[in-house]
Amino acid sequence: MTPEIPQFIINGSGFCVLPIITLAVTGPMTYIAIGLLVLLFLPLVWLGAKTWHWLHVTAVVFLFGASVSFMIAASHVANLHLQYKPRYASTKAQVEKKNEEILELESGPRNVVPPPVPGNIGTASENPDAPLSTCRIALARIIIDRGRVWRGCQITAANAAAGQFEVVTALGEGVEKHGIVANDVLYVFAETATLDDGRKLPKEYVGEYKVTAATNNAVTLNLTTGDGVDGAHTLLNQSVTLSLYALMPIDGHIFFAATESLSNFQPPVFGDMLTAADLKSPQVFTDPVGYRPDQPGALPRIAQLYGQDGAILDAITNEYARDGGGWREGDRPENHWVRVQFLKPYEFAADSVAEQGVTAGFYFDPTNGRAEVPTLRNPGAVEGQVKLEAADYAINDFALFPFNEETQSLIDQQICQPTDNIYVRQLNDYAFAFHRGFQVRSSLFQYDQLVREEIASLQRAQQRTDRQINARETERDKLTSDKGKFDREQEVAADYLNTLNQKWGSLQAELSRLYQENVTLEEQLSEISEQVTQSVEADVKQGN
After folding, report:
1. How many Cβ atoms are within 10 Å of 288's Cβ, its own excluded?
2. What residue ranges do the domains of the chain occupy?
3. How far apart are CA 526 and CA 82, in angstroms?
4. Positive or negative: CA dihedral 134, 137, 140, 142
5. Separation between Cα atoms, residue 242 and residue 191, nearest integer Å
6. What's the pLDDT tens digit per position in 152-188?
7. What mean pLDDT comes out for the span 88-105?
């Protein structure tokens, strides 16, 4: 039997009205105690029933049952409290200890500066106690530097205007050759000033260069495009150090995040991104040594050259600043992703049909996100297929999918349900983007030249047309003058014609009258002639 624990019943006013003793007992002792209470209670009720009203007896019976039930429940609660109180204290201490261990794994021991790099495995520089924050930074750097990288390269001779540089490469301890050969194509970045830990980091992309000559520790670089990256190569001098990349660093969401993500499936899914103001005037690293302080960065230069009141610059920076945040109506469908909650298992294809090496391109097929690199492909029973079963993951787990027909099909099949709309920036292939940009710019220059020639041709044709127009206008003016004279002559002729018509009408009337008179005279003459003839014939007859 455990110790007795005083318990109190508190009424509505807050005062203790009835102290009780609950026995935290287990096993048959509980039932023996209850039986003794019942045996004691029954005679007392029997004796009281002789003088009490039946309602009082009934109330006492129910009160006794309720008290016994409460006492049993209170004893069990007290027993659980005594059992789990030390467990809670022990578990709490274990949780605090584990949280401290997690914090040490993430950031290193308290009051100890974490090492800048975890070191190379199996070498003297290996640091097995490096925290996760350092390892994450190193992993991100490895992901970016997916090919060979030469840092701290010093310019020894330069023709900046032509984009030609002689560079001495920084070789590691025991390394005699840099491994660069003629005709290699390198991507060149200007480095920052030396940081507190002695490192220099790439700050600004200055163009793609072809190696025209190489020795054990030096190379000669020629710019492959005439203008480079908006003329950034013209700012290079011998005080600037360079980072040379055999492969263009890949794009990524976390590379532009100011803080780590607390959750992969809740906004912001990639952490708090750099703001648009930070991207327009980057303060992540210091400016490269030797750059003119009045020279704006790449994005401000783009704004100056092509900006329309900052609209293009804002459109570029907003994509990076909003990455991983909420999706809004009016955003492009390509940026629309959804956070889904799984309701049942399902099977899906995880690997791309095309297989590539690590340095051949992206790790994933950009059209569907499936793995192309052998180390990321699924070695399951069915090649390229992943089957998520209940044993593999818990129902109600979350995932982040692009909002497309496939995702909509999963939602329609009730395999998952959407919970949040996420804005996800489309990743860029920067090497392709710059090549494409150079091609587009070259095409635009050629098109511009053709348009200029067409404009000149049209201007010459316009001049000829203007001369013809002037001649035709002069001819028109003369014809207009002639037409005015002709119209006046036509009016005079019309008036004369009207006069002639009037005279003709009067003459016709006069001729008609004369004709009628002639006819009358002819008739009269005929009558007179007949009379004369008759008279002559009569005289002749009389003369015989």
Report:
1. 24
2. 5-107, 132-250, 321-429, 430-470
3. 173
4. negative
5. 5
6. 888 888 887 788 889 888 776 667 788 888 999 999 8
7. 87
